[in-house]
Design brief:
disordered N terminus, Rossmann fold, 14 helices, about 10% strand, single chain, about 325 residues, binds S-adenosylmethionine, DNA polymerase, domain 1, alpha/beta
Protein backbone atom coordinates (compact mmCIF):
# COMPACT_ATOMS: atom_id res chain seq x y z
CA UNK A 1 0.00 0.00 0.00
CA UNK A 2 1.10 3.52 -0.61
CA UNK A 3 -0.67 5.78 1.77
CA UNK A 4 -0.72 3.90 4.97
CA UNK A 5 1.60 0.88 4.79
CA UNK A 6 4.05 0.61 7.64
CA UNK A 7 7.16 -1.36 8.41
CA UNK A 8 5.17 -2.96 11.25
CA UNK A 9 2.62 -5.17 9.53
CA UNK A 10 -0.58 -4.25 11.38
CA UNK A 11 -0.12 -0.66 12.42
CA UNK A 12 -2.01 1.92 10.40
CA UNK A 13 -0.54 5.40 9.85
CA UNK A 14 -2.75 7.93 8.10
CA UNK A 15 -0.37 9.94 5.92
CA UNK A 16 0.17 13.67 6.61
CA UNK A 17 -2.65 13.59 9.18
CA UNK A 18 -1.35 16.43 11.36
CA UNK A 19 -0.78 18.66 8.34
CA UNK A 20 -4.21 17.87 6.89
CA UNK A 21 -6.01 18.56 10.17
CA UNK A 22 -4.30 21.93 10.54
CA UNK A 23 -5.58 22.90 7.08
CA UNK A 24 -9.17 21.67 7.37
CA UNK A 25 -9.76 22.88 10.98
CA UNK A 26 -12.38 20.38 12.23
CA UNK A 27 -12.41 22.18 15.61
CA UNK A 28 -14.81 24.68 14.01
CA UNK A 29 -17.23 21.90 13.02
CA UNK A 30 -18.97 21.39 9.66
CA UNK A 31 -19.63 18.66 7.11
CA UNK A 32 -16.59 16.86 5.69
CA UNK A 33 -16.51 14.41 2.79
CA UNK A 34 -13.83 11.72 3.07
CA UNK A 35 -13.71 10.31 -0.48
CA UNK A 36 -11.21 7.58 0.46
CA UNK A 37 -12.38 6.25 3.83
CA UNK A 38 -9.92 3.28 3.86
CA UNK A 39 -8.94 2.45 7.43
CA UNK A 40 -10.88 5.49 8.71
CA UNK A 41 -7.68 7.29 9.74
CA UNK A 42 -8.82 10.74 8.65
CA UNK A 43 -12.50 10.18 9.44
CA UNK A 44 -11.78 9.06 13.01
CA UNK A 45 -9.69 12.15 13.65
CA UNK A 46 -12.32 14.51 12.26
CA UNK A 47 -15.09 12.87 14.31
CA UNK A 48 -13.10 13.50 17.49
CA UNK A 49 -14.29 17.10 17.13
CA UNK A 50 -17.90 17.27 18.38
CA UNK A 51 -19.48 19.62 15.84
CA UNK A 52 -18.35 17.68 12.79
CA UNK A 53 -20.23 15.38 10.44
CA UNK A 54 -18.47 13.01 7.99
CA UNK A 55 -19.82 11.60 4.74
CA UNK A 56 -17.39 8.83 3.74
CA UNK A 57 -16.99 6.88 0.51
CA UNK A 58 -14.86 3.96 -0.51
CA UNK A 59 -15.04 1.67 -3.54
CA UNK A 60 -13.92 -1.29 -1.44
CA UNK A 61 -16.92 -3.09 0.07
CA UNK A 62 -14.70 -4.45 2.84
CA UNK A 63 -14.61 -0.96 4.39
CA UNK A 64 -18.25 -1.47 5.37
CA UNK A 65 -17.38 -3.37 8.56
CA UNK A 66 -15.34 -0.51 9.94
CA UNK A 67 -18.00 1.93 8.76
CA UNK A 68 -20.75 0.05 10.62
CA UNK A 69 -18.85 0.40 13.89
CA UNK A 70 -18.47 4.12 13.35
CA UNK A 71 -22.15 4.48 12.46
CA UNK A 72 -23.06 2.89 15.79
CA UNK A 73 -20.70 5.13 17.70
CA UNK A 74 -21.44 8.41 15.96
CA UNK A 75 -25.00 7.85 14.75
CA UNK A 76 -26.17 10.94 12.78
CA UNK A 77 -22.66 12.35 12.52
CA UNK A 78 -21.31 9.61 10.25
CA UNK A 79 -22.58 8.22 6.97
CA UNK A 80 -20.82 5.71 4.65
CA UNK A 81 -21.49 4.69 1.04
CA UNK A 82 -19.73 1.98 -0.95
CA UNK A 83 -19.23 4.18 -4.02
CA UNK A 84 -16.47 5.30 -6.34
CA UNK A 85 -15.70 8.96 -5.76
CA UNK A 86 -16.57 9.69 -9.40
CA UNK A 87 -20.13 8.78 -8.29
CA UNK A 88 -20.23 11.49 -5.61
CA UNK A 89 -23.07 13.20 -7.47
CA UNK A 90 -25.30 10.19 -6.63
CA UNK A 91 -25.46 11.60 -3.11
CA UNK A 92 -27.28 14.76 -4.30
CA UNK A 93 -25.21 17.15 -2.23
CA UNK A 94 -25.84 20.30 -4.24
CA UNK A 95 -27.73 22.00 -1.45
CA UNK A 96 -25.68 20.66 1.48
CA UNK A 97 -23.26 22.90 3.29
CA UNK A 98 -20.04 21.02 2.45
CA UNK A 99 -17.03 22.48 4.19
CA UNK A 100 -14.25 20.15 3.02
CA UNK A 101 -13.63 17.33 0.56
CA UNK A 102 -10.60 15.08 1.06
CA UNK A 103 -8.95 12.52 -1.22
CA UNK A 104 -6.12 10.27 0.00
CA UNK A 105 -5.35 8.40 -3.21
CA UNK A 106 -3.88 4.96 -3.62
CA UNK A 107 -4.61 1.84 -1.62
CA UNK A 108 -4.58 0.74 2.01
CA UNK A 109 -2.59 -1.77 4.04
CA UNK A 110 -5.56 -4.15 4.18
CA UNK A 111 -5.89 -4.07 0.42
CA UNK A 112 -2.24 -4.80 -0.31
CA UNK A 113 -2.33 -7.66 2.19
CA UNK A 114 -5.48 -9.11 0.68
CA UNK A 115 -4.13 -11.96 -1.48
CA UNK A 116 -7.34 -12.11 -3.53
CA UNK A 117 -6.93 -8.51 -4.69
CA UNK A 118 -3.43 -9.29 -6.02
CA UNK A 119 -2.23 -5.69 -5.80
CA UNK A 120 1.24 -6.70 -4.67
CA UNK A 121 3.88 -8.35 -6.82
CA UNK A 122 4.29 -10.81 -3.93
CA UNK A 123 0.77 -12.16 -4.58
CA UNK A 124 0.26 -15.55 -6.11
CA UNK A 125 -2.49 -16.98 -8.28
CA UNK A 126 -4.73 -15.26 -10.79
CA UNK A 127 -4.05 -11.62 -11.67
CA UNK A 128 -6.71 -9.29 -10.29
CA UNK A 129 -5.92 -5.74 -8.92
CA UNK A 130 -9.57 -4.71 -8.51
CA UNK A 131 -10.06 -2.33 -5.57
CA UNK A 132 -13.84 -2.63 -5.79
CA UNK A 133 -16.74 -1.74 -8.13
CA UNK A 134 -14.71 -2.68 -11.23
CA UNK A 135 -15.72 -3.91 -14.68
CA UNK A 136 -12.71 -6.14 -15.44
CA UNK A 137 -9.49 -7.44 -13.87
CA UNK A 138 -5.76 -7.49 -14.62
CA UNK A 139 -6.16 -11.12 -15.72
CA UNK A 140 -8.15 -10.00 -18.76
CA UNK A 141 -5.85 -7.05 -19.44
CA UNK A 142 -2.66 -9.12 -19.52
CA UNK A 143 -4.17 -12.09 -21.32
CA UNK A 144 -6.40 -10.32 -23.86
CA UNK A 145 -5.28 -6.81 -24.79
CA UNK A 146 -3.26 -6.18 -27.97
CA UNK A 147 0.48 -5.60 -27.94
CA UNK A 148 0.32 -1.85 -28.69
CA UNK A 149 -2.32 -1.34 -26.03
CA UNK A 150 -0.26 -3.04 -23.33
CA UNK A 151 2.82 -1.03 -24.34
CA UNK A 152 0.85 2.22 -23.99
CA UNK A 153 -0.56 1.21 -20.60
CA UNK A 154 2.89 0.36 -19.20
CA UNK A 155 4.53 3.41 -20.75
CA UNK A 156 1.97 6.08 -19.88
CA UNK A 157 0.56 4.75 -16.59
CA UNK A 158 3.77 3.18 -15.29
CA UNK A 159 6.44 5.32 -16.99
CA UNK A 160 8.14 1.96 -17.66
CA UNK A 161 10.97 2.54 -20.13
CA UNK A 162 11.29 -1.11 -21.12
CA UNK A 163 7.60 -1.61 -21.92
CA UNK A 164 8.15 -2.96 -25.44
CA UNK A 165 10.48 -5.76 -24.35
CA UNK A 166 8.21 -6.77 -21.48
CA UNK A 167 5.12 -6.82 -23.70
CA UNK A 168 6.90 -8.82 -26.44
CA UNK A 169 7.60 -11.54 -23.89
CA UNK A 170 4.06 -11.40 -22.43
CA UNK A 171 2.63 -11.97 -25.92
CA UNK A 172 4.98 -14.92 -26.52
CA UNK A 173 4.30 -16.57 -23.17
CA UNK A 174 0.52 -16.09 -23.12
CA UNK A 175 0.27 -18.23 -26.27
CA UNK A 176 1.14 -21.22 -24.06
CA UNK A 177 -1.16 -20.55 -21.06
CA UNK A 178 -3.04 -17.86 -19.13
CA UNK A 179 -0.49 -15.75 -17.28
CA UNK A 180 -0.81 -15.45 -13.50
CA UNK A 181 0.73 -12.90 -11.11
CA UNK A 182 4.04 -14.69 -10.65
CA UNK A 183 4.34 -15.37 -14.40
CA UNK A 184 4.14 -11.63 -14.95
CA UNK A 185 6.77 -10.96 -12.26
CA UNK A 186 9.09 -13.55 -13.85
CA UNK A 187 8.62 -12.10 -17.35
CA UNK A 188 9.33 -8.55 -16.12
CA UNK A 189 12.48 -9.77 -14.31
CA UNK A 190 14.04 -11.43 -17.33
CA UNK A 191 12.88 -8.76 -19.79
CA UNK A 192 14.38 -5.78 -18.00
CA UNK A 193 18.00 -4.97 -18.79
CA UNK A 194 18.30 -1.81 -16.75
CA UNK A 195 17.68 -3.02 -13.24
CA UNK A 196 16.85 -0.24 -10.78
CA UNK A 197 18.12 -1.20 -7.37
CA UNK A 198 15.96 1.35 -5.54
CA UNK A 199 12.63 -0.11 -6.59
CA UNK A 200 11.41 -3.61 -7.44
CA UNK A 201 11.53 -4.47 -11.16
CA UNK A 202 7.77 -5.00 -11.16
CA UNK A 203 6.78 -1.75 -9.43
CA UNK A 204 6.07 0.30 -12.56
CA UNK A 205 4.15 -2.36 -14.47
CA UNK A 206 2.07 -3.15 -11.39
CA UNK A 207 1.32 0.55 -10.88
CA UNK A 208 0.27 0.82 -14.53
CA UNK A 209 -2.04 -2.18 -14.30
CA UNK A 210 -3.62 -0.95 -11.07
CA UNK A 211 -4.29 2.48 -12.62
CA UNK A 212 -5.82 0.86 -15.72
CA UNK A 213 -7.95 -1.77 -13.95
CA UNK A 214 -9.35 0.82 -11.52
CA UNK A 215 -9.70 3.56 -14.19
CA UNK A 216 -7.83 5.82 -11.81
CA UNK A 217 -7.35 8.68 -14.28
CA UNK A 218 -11.05 9.26 -15.00
CA UNK A 219 -11.86 8.51 -11.36
CA UNK A 220 -9.52 11.27 -10.22
CA UNK A 221 -10.54 13.83 -12.83
CA UNK A 222 -14.28 13.26 -12.38
CA UNK A 223 -13.86 13.08 -8.61
CA UNK A 224 -12.06 16.44 -8.53
CA UNK A 225 -14.70 18.08 -10.72
CA UNK A 226 -17.71 16.90 -8.72
CA UNK A 227 -15.95 17.65 -5.41
CA UNK A 228 -15.30 21.21 -6.59
CA UNK A 229 -18.97 21.60 -7.47
CA UNK A 230 -20.40 20.48 -4.13
CA UNK A 231 -18.06 22.62 -2.04
CA UNK A 232 -19.49 25.85 -0.67
CA UNK A 233 -17.69 29.21 -0.63
CA UNK A 234 -14.57 29.06 1.60
CA UNK A 235 -14.70 25.26 1.43
CA UNK A 236 -11.44 23.33 1.15
CA UNK A 237 -10.48 20.66 -1.36
CA UNK A 238 -7.44 18.66 -0.17
CA UNK A 239 -5.74 15.84 -2.06
CA UNK A 240 -2.89 13.52 -1.09
CA UNK A 241 -1.16 11.94 -4.11
CA UNK A 242 1.50 9.23 -4.28
CA UNK A 243 2.87 9.25 -7.80
CA UNK A 244 3.72 11.81 -10.44
CA UNK A 245 0.75 11.15 -12.76
CA UNK A 246 -1.79 11.81 -10.00
CA UNK A 247 0.13 14.83 -8.77
CA UNK A 248 0.38 16.33 -12.27
CA UNK A 249 -3.41 16.14 -12.66
CA UNK A 250 -4.15 17.64 -9.23
CA UNK A 251 -1.55 20.38 -9.67
CA UNK A 252 -2.93 21.36 -13.07
CA UNK A 253 -6.56 21.28 -11.92
CA UNK A 254 -5.86 23.49 -8.92
CA UNK A 255 -3.61 25.92 -10.78
CA UNK A 256 -5.86 26.32 -13.83
CA UNK A 257 -8.91 27.11 -11.70
CA UNK A 258 -6.97 29.54 -9.50
CA UNK A 259 -5.81 31.79 -12.31
CA UNK A 260 -7.65 34.58 -14.03
CA UNK A 261 -7.59 33.79 -17.73
CA UNK A 262 -9.31 36.87 -19.19
CA UNK A 263 -11.76 35.95 -21.89
CA UNK A 264 -11.16 32.24 -22.09
CA UNK A 265 -13.59 29.55 -23.11
CA UNK A 266 -12.65 27.77 -19.91
CA UNK A 267 -13.77 30.48 -17.55
CA UNK A 268 -16.79 29.75 -15.37
CA UNK A 269 -20.00 30.48 -17.19
CA UNK A 270 -21.66 32.33 -14.35
CA UNK A 271 -18.85 34.35 -12.78
CA UNK A 272 -16.86 35.48 -15.74
CA UNK A 273 -14.33 37.52 -13.82
CA UNK A 274 -13.78 35.31 -10.79
CA UNK A 275 -11.61 32.29 -10.32
CA UNK A 276 -12.99 29.19 -8.65
CA UNK A 277 -10.15 28.57 -6.22
CA UNK A 278 -7.53 30.31 -4.20
CA UNK A 279 -4.24 28.43 -4.17
CA UNK A 280 -2.60 29.29 -0.85
CA UNK A 281 0.61 27.33 -1.51
CA UNK A 282 2.08 26.58 -4.91
CA UNK A 283 4.34 23.87 -3.51
CA UNK A 284 2.91 20.67 -2.04
CA UNK A 285 3.17 19.81 1.64
CA UNK A 286 5.49 16.83 2.17
CA UNK A 287 5.86 14.38 5.06
CA UNK A 288 8.44 15.19 7.72
CA UNK A 289 11.61 13.10 8.13
CA UNK A 290 10.05 11.62 11.28
CA UNK A 291 6.93 10.51 9.40
CA UNK A 292 8.97 8.91 6.61
CA UNK A 293 11.07 7.06 9.20
CA UNK A 294 7.95 5.77 10.93
CA UNK A 295 6.09 4.97 7.72
CA UNK A 296 8.54 4.71 4.76
CA UNK A 297 5.93 4.48 1.95
CA UNK A 298 4.75 7.98 2.93
CA UNK A 299 7.93 9.35 1.31
CA UNK A 300 6.22 9.94 -2.05
CA UNK A 301 3.12 11.60 -0.55
CA UNK A 302 2.24 15.16 -1.57
CA UNK A 303 -0.61 17.15 -0.06
CA UNK A 304 -2.10 19.97 -2.13
CA UNK A 305 -5.17 22.03 -1.28
CA UNK A 306 -7.28 24.93 -2.52
CA UNK A 307 -10.00 27.11 -1.04
CA UNK A 308 -13.18 27.68 -3.03
CA UNK A 309 -13.75 31.39 -3.61
CA UNK A 310 -17.27 31.53 -4.98
CA UNK A 311 -20.54 29.73 -4.43
CA UNK A 312 -21.03 28.22 -7.85
CA UNK A 313 -22.00 24.68 -8.76
CA UNK A 314 -21.35 24.97 -12.50
CA UNK A 315 -17.94 25.88 -13.90
CA UNK A 316 -15.81 24.94 -16.86
CA UNK A 317 -12.43 23.27 -16.85
CA UNK A 318 -10.14 22.04 -19.60
CA UNK A 319 -8.65 19.29 -17.42
CA UNK A 320 -10.15 16.54 -19.60
CA UNK A 321 -8.60 18.04 -22.74
CA UNK A 322 -5.28 18.49 -21.03
CA UNK A 323 -5.09 14.81 -20.00
CA UNK A 324 -6.92 13.39 -23.04
CA UNK A 325 -4.05 11.02 -23.92
CA UNK A 326 -4.21 9.41 -20.49
CA UNK A 327 -8.02 9.26 -20.52
CA UNK A 328 -8.13 7.71 -24.01
CA UNK A 329 -6.08 4.73 -22.81
CA UNK A 330 -9.05 3.71 -20.64
CA UNK A 331 -11.01 3.03 -23.85
CA UNK A 332 -8.90 -0.08 -24.49
CA UNK A 333 -11.02 -1.78 -21.84
CA UNK A 334 -14.19 -1.46 -23.93
CA UNK A 335 -13.52 -4.77 -25.63
CA UNK A 336 -12.86 -6.67 -22.39
C1 LIG B 1 -4.77 5.35 1.01
S1 LIG B 1 -6.29 4.62 1.38
C2 LIG B 1 -7.06 5.83 2.37
C3 LIG B 1 -6.61 5.77 3.79
C4 LIG B 1 -7.43 6.65 4.70
N1 LIG B 1 -7.20 8.05 4.44
C5 LIG B 1 -7.09 6.34 6.13
O1 LIG B 1 -6.49 7.19 6.78
O2 LIG B 1 -7.42 5.28 6.61
C6 LIG B 1 -7.13 4.81 -0.13
C7 LIG B 1 -8.55 4.28 -0.12
O3 LIG B 1 -9.20 4.87 -1.23
C8 LIG B 1 -10.04 3.94 -1.81
N2 LIG B 1 -10.22 4.36 -3.20
C9 LIG B 1 -9.30 4.38 -4.18
N3 LIG B 1 -9.84 4.84 -5.31
C10 LIG B 1 -11.15 5.12 -5.03
C11 LIG B 1 -12.24 5.62 -5.80
N4 LIG B 1 -12.10 5.93 -7.08
N5 LIG B 1 -13.42 5.79 -5.19
C12 LIG B 1 -13.58 5.48 -3.86
N6 LIG B 1 -12.59 4.97 -3.09
C13 LIG B 1 -11.38 4.81 -3.68
C14 LIG B 1 -9.33 2.63 -1.66
O4 LIG B 1 -10.24 1.55 -1.75
C15 LIG B 1 -8.67 2.78 -0.30
O5 LIG B 1 -9.46 2.24 0.69
Amino acid sequence: MKATISSEPVKHFPVLLKELISIISPQYGGTFIDCTFGQAGYTNKILEFPDTKVIALDRDKQCENKAKLLSKKFDERFFFKNLRFSQLSNLKLKNENIKTVIFDLGYSLNQIKDKKKGLSFNSTGKLNMQMGLNDFSAHEVINKLAKDELVKIFKFYGEEKESKKIVKNIILERKKKFLETQDLVRIINYSKKNKNFRINNSTKVFQALRIFVNKEISELINGLIIASKVLKKNGILAVVTFHSIEDKIVKYFFKSLSEKKGVSRYMPEINTDSTIFELKKKKPILPSKEEILKNPPSRTAKLRYVIKKIDTYEFKTDVKDKFKDLLDIENFSKKL
